[in-house]
Amino acid sequence: MAEPVLPSTARTLLARTARVQRDGRAPSLLAGVVRDGGLAWSTGRGEVAEPHDDVQYRLGSISKTVTALVVMRLRDEGRLGLDDPFEQHVPGTPLGDRTVGQLLSHLAGAGSESPGGWWERVPGGTLEDLRLTGDDVVLGAARRFHYSNLGYGLLGELVARHRQRPWEDVVRDEVLTPLGMTRTTPRPSGRAATGSAVHPWADVVLPEPEHDAGVMAAAGQLWATLADLARLGVFLLGDTGDVLSPATLEEMTVPAGVDPSAPGWSAYGLGLQVLRVDGHTLVGHGGSMPGFLAGVFVDRVEQAGAVTLANTTSGLDPLVPGLLADLRAAEPRVVEAWTPSAPPLPLDLLGVWFWGPAPHVLRAQAGGLLHLGPLPGRGGRASRFAPRPDGTWVGLDGYYAGETLRIAPDHLDLATFVFTRTPYDSEAPVPGGVDDGGWQAPA
After folding, report:
1. Co-location of 244 and 355 in the same domain
2. How far apart are CA 312 and CA 206, in angstroms?
3. Residues 230-242: pLDDT tens digits?
């Protein structure tokens, strides 16, 4: 049970939520903040009966995250690879040469929507009913990010074929039930909100349709309560249970094709949106279907998240970033105290190393990691490294992500770069050698 927010914080969060609901004219809006393993605060505004956290709303594209979790489970079991051609798992589509990983990260060039009637407002059928053609491939592979609902419909088919069961049964048994999300279902069940469109020029509403999306269900079919959505937020903060390993979750949060050191950006990992807002990185997913808007995003550094559900088609200002900003300002996180720990290398191997004439520092970090980067105030490439069983180190992020670092007493060997204890040490294996004349003043 999460510790509730302070009364003053609760009022600030309530005031923001109430203004968004009123100004956005949502028939109902639910909001909550997540920390310490659960909902620390929540509210319902508009036509909401208590308990507001047990009313189902449609999640829309948050369903994609749930689908991606099962795909990653299949990968971790060795049943598929992210670089596998899709044809290897689901033959006969025009996207067969695109990879599973490209589909997960919206880099496969698949069309944004499935062919035929708009799948979000008309009942769906099987993959064969879509009758996909080359026209459903709109971009080259890995050329650019292009959000694709069709791509996730295909990933749902991949899940169903590997497990030999319907997608909805697989996600229920492998993700929802293990996480305790028992009020998350493919169609509304029990207390559920009615999806509505609000007239742009008058305060009247129009009910939106609800249906089974068929093969496209994996892209946006699920319904959930605020309490269940909060549990997904807790998962994204690292409480992965038996669903995925923390390392696989971390892998899913890495943006595809975007430099995360940039001052502001939005990107997509593997089934997760990654946003940079006011200097903070938020991980999660938004969702929209006719009649509904939803969101779950967490700040993994601050160990807090926010969730929202509304039964309106459009018109709401973003609420999650504001709730998280309010929480940070009102109740800043108190970090763990620093304590000494044994370094993963002898101390004489840490400290200053030179790439050519440029000084860098190799330092130990918590958790048995190393960090190699330029001196403060100097530009250059920086990465963290984790140990491998064979004594080498692998880059975790930055320019050297995935690259191998080898450490010798007199030099570091990293992706063909050699770092030495002094600039261009003639005794070290510097590529291309060192001029016999050594360092000289200009004539």
Report:
1. no
2. 10
3. 999 999 999 999 9
